[in-house]
Design a protein that fits this description.
The chain is mainly alpha-helical. It contains ten helices and no strands. It starts with a helix and ends in a 6-residue tail after the last helix.
């Protein structure tokens, strides 16, 4: 699969960058995915998905320093693993033939949050950094705690002395504010 990815890249520099990235992080990401999924068959596929994403956005990744790049790859594999769990749960729902109230389909609010996350993922590193810098302190903290420090909602809630629901609400508002800032709908505060 990796060789097929390399063949799709026209630039020799991009190909060399991707090979170096693959060599430096592939094994570590596979181990991380195996630890999260507790499954030894799927990690390689999940890591391949992450590298497919890298290929699609290679120019953004080339602009990152090595520490940021490693962190982004770590976050990406965690998200891909969680997406894998969600996909498995959806398959189970469809195979069972019935849905109960606890296993209902994705709500409108979570669809909006996913759309906001996708919009944020499409931003350049510079745009995203600038938008985060413009956020009010409490929003900036929860974004940094969640996505840079990789803290759970519970850990953030404990540190701030608020409930998990409040943390999720802050994250939603912060993501929305980032989208607004990047669309130029609000002025710098």
């Amino acid at each position: 699969m990796f060789l097929l990815l390399l063949q799709t890249i026209e630039s020799e520099d991009d190909r060399a960058f991707l090979e170096q990235l693959f060599d430096a992080h592939y094994v570590r990401l596979c181990k991380k995915a195996a630890a999260i999924t507790q499954n030894n068959q799927v990690p390689e596929d999940l890591v391949q998905d992450v590298f497919l994403y890298v290929v699609k956005h290679i120019q953004k990744f080339r602009q990152m320093d090595c520490c940021t790049l490693r962190h982004i790859l770590d976050i990406s594999i965690k998200r891909r693993c969680y997406d894998y769990f969600k996909e498995q749960n959806v398959r189970k729902k469809h195979l069972s033939g019935s849905l109960d109230d606890d296993n209902s389909f994705v709500s409108v609010s979570s669809t909006i949050a996913n759309t906001e996350e996708e919009a944020i993922e499409n931003l350049s590193v510079g745009e995203l950094s600038e938008a985060i810098r413009k956020l009010p302190d409490h929003y900036r903290y929860v974004i940094e705690a969640k996505y840079i420090l990789s803290l759970t909602d519970g850990e953030i809630a404990k540190e701030l002395g608020i409930g998990k629901a409040s943390v999720r609400q802050y994250l939603t508002r912060a993501r929305r504010k980032i989208c607004e800032l990047c669309e130029g709908r609000i002025d710098e505060e």
